[in-house]
Amino acid sequence: MANTDMDEPTGDRDFVASLEKGLAVIEAFDASRPRLTLTDVAKLTGITRAAARRYLRTLTKLNYADFDGRYFSLSPRILRLGYAYLSSTSLSLRLQPFLEKISQETGESSSAAVLDGDDIVYIARSATRRIMSIGLGVGSRLPAYCTSLGRAILAYQTPAEIEAYLERVKLEPKTPKTLTQKSDLRAALEAARQQGYAMVSEELEFGLQSIAVPLIQKNDKITIALNISAQAARVSAQEMEERFLPTLREASEALRYTF
Amino acid sequence: MANTDMDEPTGDRDFVASLEKGLAVIEAFDASRPRLTLTDVAKLTGITRAAARRYLRTLTKLNYADFDGRYFSLSPRILRLGYAYLSSTSLSLRLQPFLEKISQETGESSSAAVLDGDDIVYIARSATRRIMSIGLGVGSRLPAYCTSLGRAILAYQTPAEIEAYLERVKLEPKTPKTLTQKSDLRAALEAARQQGYAMVSEELEFGLQSIAVPLIQKNDKITIALNISAQAARVSAQEMEERFLPTLREASEALRYTF
DNA sequence: CATGTGTGTTCGCATTGCGAACATTGATAA
DNA sequence: TTATCAATGTTCGCAATGCGAACACACATG
């Protein structure tokens, strides 16, 4: 995920380009690239090898990264950065009891996520059982277009924001059921907005079904949603709507205006 | 948490001081300080107001922070930084199934944590029910000295590392039962090392009891531990040892050398 | 209304971080 | 085994970036 917009001169004397590059270096690491040489990081971020070397050595010196003589890897201290956000908003802390209650009442997994760019990020989760092949802990991110959480949030953005999103998003099929036509996604978002919830059946992953509602924050802002997920083979869409939607709405209502 | 060691000239031309300051700015935010002015950040980090202003504006421009005209706050994008670590190590992903199995078998909450400095950081968790007053999601941190996870890891550090840790740690009492004598903690760590597990009863929080075992990583390194927590009123220490320890040991054995 | 304090901003300048050139290492071909 | 080449890591002269003292502004207080 090379951050090529670093090349754009901002002409802004208040901008600290070194911080931008440093953060890009951190984000160069991911599941497919857990250990990187300085040349790897230079290629992924578009900065020179000399610069990559300086940032990596700085991160190592500050204990945010480890070095084994050739490869760099991130260290647990990096979690302080994400924790700074989670603790500062207390999102997890305040949402968790509601998600656990939902899980307990429905016997299914429940999550909350926030929209960040074109992705949703999980900020709290209560899992009764494992129904997905990928682990979804706090901090995990998924594309918004094919998740009920993403659609429940996107549906409440301004028409201009929705159109801008539809224009730039690439609707990659995750399953044969994934909506890949932008007109279809636009209609699904409009429907979600009308009915006050979003339902996604096997668009993200085969066998997975989920329903989500938006959480109305202060100033009627909406960037958070709550959901319930279940296996499509065990729970039909109609059951989700009849059994789970009231529970979600109750939780959302209790949390209205508290964020 | 002012980072005053930034004032030390490192004389190191490979060190990027701007990155150090930028990361310190991010870490200035926490639960007690979710929204800060640039003057607040300057005070907390020890940098000038002008510098604080540049870093905060840079973070805002990169969408890592928000600005309302006077106050700055972190944005969800910051979670990408912690996610870079979690996804790169796949720790949560690989540990989660084991913790869920432990939770299912024992009916109690199970967690995994990694040692980072003098704290433990939660990296995976399976909670059957809420038994603590504080939420403990991934990224949460607790002091190592009064947690079973912390002791299960500390017990396996080198004697020099343990002595260095005992010298610098401040054993603040969290409850009347917290060990506050360093000789007592040293003995508890030695006992944990001998018996292969650590047990903590109501030292972190009243009514909370937990048992943890270390996870032996590659090269016989130990920086991760697994635990089970329960309410002291419901489960005695002896029950934990008899019923829960085998389950933990089994999981730890299955994961031996895989990290 | 004047003064003092706290907070935010500017711009001349020095230090910091840059990257071209060099050094080292490892792979490959003869 | 040796020479050559490519890839990767490192250095240091230098200019651009980030610094902070001084200034500007806003608000509180007497």
UniProtKB/TrEMBL annotation, chains A, B:
Domain spans labelled HTH iclR-type: 16-76
Please report the stretch or stretches of sequence annotated as the IclR-ED domain.
Answer: 77-259
Q: Matching Gene3D superfamilies, A to Z?
A: 3.30.450.40, Winged helix-like DNA-binding domain superfamily/Winged helix DNA-binding domain
- Top-rank taxon: Bacteria
Q: Where in this chain does the entry annotate a coiled-coil region?
A: none
| GO terms of biological process kind | 3,4-dihydroxybenzoate metabolic process; negative regulation of DNA-templated transcription; positive regulation of DNA-templated transcription
Record's keyword annotation contains rRNA-binding = no
- PANTHER family recorded for this chain? HELIX-TURN-HELIX TRANSCRIPTIONAL REGULATOR, ICLR FAMILY (PTHR30136), TRANSCRIPTIONAL REGULATOR (PTHR30136:SF34)
Under which name does UniProt file this protein?
IclR family transcriptional regulator
